[in-house]
Amino acid sequence: MVNQGYKCRTLSYWSGVIYSYCDIGRFKLKDLYSIDINEELLDEEIELSGWVQVKREHGGIIFIDLRDRSGIVQLVFDQNESMDLFNLANELKSEYVIKVKGKVRKRENPNPNIPTGYYEVLVLSLEVLNEAKPLPIQVIKQTEDSEEIRLKYRYIDLRRERMKENIVARHKVTSEIRKFFNDRGFYDIETPFLTKSTPEGARDFLVPSRLNQGRFYALPQSPQIFKQLLMISGFEKYYQIVRCFRDEDLRADRQPEFTQLDVEMSFIDEEDIFSNIDEMFKSILGSVYGKDLSTPLPRMKYDEAMSRYGTDRPDLRFGLALNDVSDFIKKMKVKSFLIDGINQGRKFYTLVSPLSDKITRKFLDSYASESKKRGCDIFTWAKINGVNKSISGPFSKLFENTDDILGIVGALSQIDYEKEENYILFGCYGEERKVQELLGDLRSSLGDLLGLINNEDLNFCWVTDFPLFEWSDEEGKIVSVHHPFTSPKSNIEEVEIELRSDNIYKLKSRSYDLVLNGIELGGGSIRIHKPKVQRKVFSILGLSHEEIDQKFGFLIRALEYGAPPHGGIAFGLDRIVMMLQGESSIREVIPFPKTASGLCPLTGAPDFISARQLGELGLKLK
C-alpha cells in the first residue's frame, strides 16, 4: 500500500499477520511466515499454517517442524500445558496440513543451521486443515526416484528444498530481468500465440481452426517476426518473457514448450546488444546470487572458436586448445598423401593432454571408431614420455622423424618438457569442420574425465561473426546458420556480388551467441531491414518469388514502409536458471515440464480427443 500522507503510529501482531494502524484504519502489511519469527515477536501470540515435516516426541513433549514456503519453525506441544492438544498432535502425520496459534519463545537447544533455529512456538490451538495419504515420493529423505514418478507427482516433488530453491531462483531472476529492462526504457509487449506457420528451423506445433476449417494456426517457435514488426512500428526498445513452442527431438536442455527472454532495439549495432546484456547478467548475478561479474564479457569470433575449441560453444573453464598443424606438416617428412590432401584443402589438427590412467585403450578406441562414423580420414594418438622424450603409439607412423612431432607439440601447445611430465598427443586429419568437431568433443570429454573443470566457475563468452549460410545434409540444401532474417556482415553492394558466387559459405553474418561454460544461453543478430536484401536471402535459401510472397509477404511489405536498422537477441530463460543453479537439465527448473519423449505424466498429455471434437474441426484421423 502506498503511503499517501497518512500517519502510521504503531505495529501490532494479530492472527498470524502483521498489521499497521494508520489514520484510515488497519491494513494488512505482510503475511507472517516462519522466516519472520525473530526477537521482536518473543512472547507474542501468532498464527501459522503449513505442512507437518517432522514429528518427534521426548518425555511428554511433541516437537513438530512446520514447513511453509519460507522454511521451517519448531512447534511445541506440552502435555503439561494441554493434554488434549498433546493427544491431537500425536495423531499428526507427515505432510498433514495444519494451522496453529501459539506463543513465540526462545529454544532451550538452539539450532543455528536454520534461520528460525533460536525460536519456537508453544502451540495454544491446533486445527487440521487436511490429512495426507502416505507419499509416493519422499520430501525430506530424497530417494533416487525415476523422473517419470517425480513428474507424475510433481506437486510433491516441488515441496523438496532443492526444487523449491530452483523455482524461487527462477522467480528472482525473472524479476531482476524485468526490473533491468524497465529501468532502461524498454516496453514489455505481448505477441500472439496463434500465428502463421513459417519455415524457421524446427517443426511447428499446429492448431486447427474450427471457424476456418482446413486452415491451421502455428504456435510460435519465437516472436522473431513480431518483434521486428514492433521495431517497424516505432517502439524502438522491446522485451518480453514469452512461451515458445518447437516440435523437435528433446534432450536435457530442450522442451516442446519453453520460456524465452526476447529483446529487440532500433537504431543500434552489436555493441549496444553486448553492453546491455553484459550489464543484465552482472545485475542478475549481483542481485540474486551475490556474485560479481567483470564486464565487458570476453568475445571470440566463430572461426577462432572452431579452430581452437572445435565448437561454437567453447567451454573456457579449462585449456586443452586445438592446434591446426597443417602448415607445419607440409614442411616435414611425412606420408605423401597427407601433404597432397592438405594442399587440396584438408586439415590436420592436434590436441595435447596430460597423460592419465583414465585415458584407457577402450577410451581411445571409442574415438577412433567415432571418427570413422563422422567421416574423418585419420584419428591417431601417441604417448609422450616427458623424461626421455620418447614417443609410443600409432601417431609416429605418419612421420619419418619423431623429433618433428616433439617440435610441433612443444611449439603449438606450449608444453614445458623440463617438467618431465607425460602427455598424450591426439591427431585428426580430414575435412576441417569434421576434424574440429571430433576433437572438440574429445576435448570436452577430457575436461570431465581428468577433472580439469571447476564447476563453481562462470565463464561467459560472446561468439561473433558466424557464417550466414551452411549446407544441411539432413535437408539437402543451403540453410541459415541462425535464421533467414539475419543481416549479412558485408554492405549491400558486396552482398550482391557474394551471393551470386559459388563461395557463399564464406559470407559472414552480423550474428552472435552468448555462451556460458560450453552451453549456449542465447543468440541474436542485427536484422535485415531492407526488402531487397531480404528477398535475396530468401531466394538463396531456395524460396521462389511466389513462396516468398506467400510465406513472408507481410514482412516484406512492412520492410517497404520505412523499417529502421534494428537487432536483438533471445535467451532460453530455463537454460539461464539451469546453469546458474548448477543443474544439468532444464526440467529441474521448470515447474511442470514434459519428459524426454514429450509426455506429461501428471496430466496424461498429449491425449486422444473424441470423434465429436474432430468433427467440429473438420478432421479425421487416418
Provide an overview of this structure.
The protein is α+β, with helices and mostly antiparallel strands and 622 residues long. It has 4 domains: 1-28, no CATH class; 32-130, OB fold (Dihydrolipoamide Acetyltransferase, E2P) (Beta Barrel); 164-300 and 461-588, BirA Bifunctional Protein, domain 2 (2-Layer Sandwich), CATH 3.30.930; 318-453, GAD-like domain (Gyrase A, domain 2). It is built from 17 helices and 25 strands. An 8-stranded mixed β-sheet has the order 9-12-13-25-24-23-20-14, sandwiched between helices. Strands 4-5-6-8-7 form a 5-stranded mixed barrel. A hairpin with a 2-residue loop joins strand 5 and strand 6. Helix 13 (492-500) runs parallel beside helix 14. The radius of gyration is 31 Å and the shape is globular.
Features:
single chain; 622 residues; alpha+beta; OB fold (Dihydrolipoamide Acetyltransferase, E2P); 4 domains; 8-stranded mixed sheet; 5-stranded mixed barrel; 17 helices; 25 strands; disordered N terminus
- How many H/I helices? 17
CATH topology name of the largest domain, in short, is BirA Bifunctional Protein, domain 2
- Walk across the major sheet and give the strand order: 9-12-13-25-24-23-20-14
Beta-strand level of the residues, as a percent range? 25-35%
Give the overall silhouette: globular
Q: What Rg do the Cα atoms give? A: 31 Å
Helix content: 25-40%
CATH homologous superfamily identity of the largest domain: Bira Bifunctional Protein, Domain 2
Structural category: alpha+beta
Annotation, overall tally of beta strands: 25
Distance between the termini: 59 Å
> Unreliable segments (pLDDT under 50, ≥5 consecutive)?
1-30
CATH architecture tag of the largest domain: 2-Layer Sandwich
The main sheet comes to:
8 strands, mixed
The overall average pLDDT, rounded, is 89
Number of domains: 4
CATH class value of the largest domain: Alpha Beta
